[in-house]
Amino acid sequence: MSETNPAATAPVTADAAPHRYTAAMAAEIEARWQDFWDAEGTYAAPNPKGDLAGDPELVARPKKFIMDMFPYPSGAGLHVGHPLGYIATDVFARFQRMTGHNVLHTLGFDAFGLPAEQYAVQTGTHPRASTEANMKNMVSQLRRLGLGHDKRRSFATIDPEYYKWTQWIFLQIFNSWYDDEAKRARPISELVAQFDSGERAVPGGGTWSALTEAERADLLGEYRLAYASDAPVNWCPGLGTVLANEEVTADGRSERGNFPVFKSKLRQWNMRITAYADRLLDDLDQLDWPEAIKLQQRNWIGRSEGARVDFPVDGERITVFTTRPDTLFGATYMVLAPEHPLVEKFTPAAWPEGTRDAWTGGHATPAEAVAAYRAQAASKSDVERQAEAKDKTGVFIGAYATNPVNGEQVPVFVADYVLMGYGTGAIMAVPAGDQRDFEFARAFELPIRCIVEPTDGRGTDPSTWESAFASYDAKIMNSYNDEVSLDGLGVVEAKERITEWLERTGAGAGTVNFRLRDWLFSRQRYWGEPFPIVYDEDGIAHPLPASMLPLELPEVEDYSPRTFDPDDADTKPETPLSRNEDWVHVTLDLGDGRGPRRYRRETNTMPNWAGSCWYELRYLDPHNSEQLVDPEIEQYWMGPREGLPHGGVDLYVGGAEHAVLHLLYARFWSKVLFDLGHVSSAEPFHKLFNQGMIQAYVYRDSRGIAVPAAEVEERDGAYFHGGEKVSRLLGKMGKSLKNAVTPDEICAEYGADTLRLYEMAMGPLDVSRPWDTRAVVGQFRLLQRLWRNVVDENTGRLSVADVAETDVDADTLRALHKAIDGVRQDLEGMRFNTAIAKVTELNNHLTKVGGPVPRPVAERLVLLVAPLAPHVAEELWRKLGHTSSVVHEDFPVADPAYVVDETVTCVVQIKGKVKARLEVSPSVSEEDLEKAALADEKVVAALGGAGIRKVIVRAPKLVNIVPA
Asked: How far is CA 336 from the centre of its chain?
């Protein structure tokens, strides 16, 4: 690699010390080296083959793939809190390069999504125009920080060359099914072959060849990993779109606009992520992730063991999942979620004779009662429905089910405390053992049967109870029929016995249930990836052939979805894409032998999660137009190896707020691609690190409105804005809170290297910390002292002493090698704050010693600083006479002889009190240390001739003497 010397072109600053390190000098140095790095391709990471192949020597090194979570290019730009993780990964990547690794570190943009679409609705600006402008600004801000990204690999999810492959992956998922026996995804064509040959029976009898095309499509839809169905959704008429759960507030309103949100059913695309629940759960054990994140994923997946139980209803059945099948004899009624598809099926025309008034809700017919209750429930959020409110609501649907263990007819209710999103959307209610069931039973005068012997002295008559009694330790009672008895058994044994009976009689079976639901994959928005799906005249979905990808977004005149009366729950979405008639209705030849036919395109778009589900793969092979990723390249960067049993990115850094959704979705896509043979890595991210947050003080006036933090004055411990006293509270940093500080401001005042050092020195990377602009100057002064230790501020010439290492004094060598050893360990462990402290300690030592710094010490000091403050390190490295970039220099290695202290202090205690301190060798033996302690004058005097019962020695730092 040819490298010129930009340091030679540095201008001279005229002041009292013309070559002092100032903000102006920092700005000039940093801009010059950033230009140099770009021109030389300093951070280019070579692939083993392809258009990004490069230096074979680098490829032969161990690889290290380091990633930041995808940034979204906001119009507000960056504040100083945003780059925390980016600087950290940059420091770590630079250290890895200097320790002999081929490092892939780059950054792209997650550029689809709602903010750009909202801006387009408000201004008429095309989302692409505003997004690209935001990206340009963000690239400029990040470049100023000196981040060592391989810019050849950057992209945005809105690039058609990128989302071509997002659409292609969707088609792979659509054209796949999960084989429960093989425990992996397989092409849908293999399932078709099984049906066609008779190897797999067609449900309901008959043959595959006898099915119509629509019947075949419906059958395959029951297996496909991507499928369309009538799914319960959060419908917001006031916004005209379906919302994800995280976009709905706890009180059932939209985060944006505060409109009512209703439960509705819409034809939506789904991903069958539930098929992978076990693997998503089990493989967490092999990942190097924070335990808190693993726990969140485990809870989200929510694996629970229990039994499936069928309750017959008029020749049909209601299936429930329960983790306590041992309580079946206590089930006295059933509850269906309001959205349950069986509600309408089992609702009769008239109330059965003898129906209680309290069960009807005051309605003339069951249908009226159910419709009214459903409307009421649709206006509540899931959080509201699950709240532990004493007033339980519901209506009888007019049907009875049969409890399979005792033949009792139990009434079936609809109630909003049961959710369609868990289990089967139906429960057997055991009011004696569940508090919500207990309260419902009391409200509707339903039987409560004691089936677990209370251990708290309340007795066995539930009519006297004030609450339900739940226990996993108590014995079962009142639970038997002619074939099975659970009385006297513990819970575990009772569960086993009743499950065996259910399976033997065909009334149910032991099973595993998951809280995880299939992933709702449709959005009624414009700014997202179009689905590569078209529908024929019979409404059958057909995938576009790969040759027709990418299917690009068309132009539309209006980017906003149609909105409705916010309180009208009966409305349905109208998507922006549906208004482009020429794009929606097309004549295509799909290459299936049928020739050109008329089709209707899918007018929903993919969610913003889609592009971030696989972007790590695009970084590997960003210009490949023929395949998702070259297998050899993917294997090189992400393939399984020792310590990475499932492969994946070596280090992934980002916020803990993505603990579940993004990480779970990306893991799912990786496993499907792995099963189908497209990648060798079954997991996307092997090691995950969650950085903390940079916080800032928020100042509010008497109205609670945030005031500009920069205009607040502190007087006598109080805070004032415009003469008015304001409150102060530590919180997030952001434009809306008027407390944002931009990196541009800090770079202008101190330089990017100072900002980098300050953010890394503020505290442990995984802990949130408050921003204090006044404290930034401390790191600026560190760089000034570093500069003075190498450069004469008056002449600009080197001030180092050209001496051999053997001529360096022992104290300085010891300080140097201790710093090398400590900084090396800290950088490897991402303890950047303590690494900076050790560099500061060494720099201060050199300042105190005075005189020219020995060249062997100065050079290694610069190398220690290089990952943390790369611009000033490059400048000093060139001034020291080197012609190559410091980026690829070897990181210093400590001499063990200087790392070990010559002596350590040993504390000598008598009866637990310190009586003497000894300076001893770190390698002193316990025997010699005991002799030295007992011979010490202070110890002899303290003992006063007393005998010794025991001496406890912990070499080399402690001797504890116990007198007789």
From this structure: 34
In what helix (H) or strand (E) does residue 856 lie, and over which residues does it extend?
A: helix 855-865
- Asked whether the beta carbons of 653 and 644 are under 8 A apart, the reply is no
Q: What is the mean pLDDT of residues 716-736?
A: 91
pLDDT at position 15: 52
Burial 595-627 (b: 16+ CB within 10 A, else e): eeeebebbbbbbbbbbbbbbbbbbbbbbebeee
**pLDDT tens, position by position, 878-931:** 999 999 999 999 999 999 989 987 789 999 999 889 999 999 988 899 999 999
Cα four-point dihedral sign 703, 709, 715, 720: negative
pLDDT of residue 11: 40
Q: Which fold has domain 1-40+745-899?
A: Isoleucyl-tRNA Synthetase; Domain 1 (1.10.730)
Residue 142: pLDDT above 80? Answer: yes
Output the CA–CA distances (angstroms, integers) from residue 418 to 234, 250, 387, 423, 695, in the order listed: 16, 17, 11, 10, 40
Among the four given CATH numbers 3.40.50.970, 2.10.70.10, 2.160.10.10, 3.90.740.10, the one describing domain 303-514: 3.90.740.10
CATH fold of 901-963, please? Ubiquitin-like (UB roll) (3.10.20)
**Domain boundary assignment for the chain:** 1-40+745-899, 43-163+610-690, 303-514, 695-731, 901-963
Residue with tokens 């003339």: 364
Per-residue model confidence (pLDDT) at position 2: 37
pLDDT at 115 over 90: no
- Alpha carbon of residue 702 to chain centroid: 38
User: What is the number of alpha carbons within 13 Å of residue 155 lying toward its C-beta?
Assistant: 23
Q: What CA–CA distance (Å, rounded) separates 852 from 872?
A: 19
- Label residue 386 by pLDDT band (50, 70, 90): low
Tokens found for residue 351: 């109330």
pTM of the model: 0.86
pLDDT at 383 (0 to 100): 65
294 versus 378: which is more confidently predicted?
294
Q: How far apart are CA 884 and CA 88, in angstroms?
A: 24
Q: What per-residue string of b and e applies to 812-837 under the rule 16 or more CB within 10 Å gives b? A: bbbbbbbbbbbbbebbeebbbbbbbe
Query: Rounded to an integer, what distance in angstroms lies between the CA atom of residue 815 and that of residue 544?
Result: 66
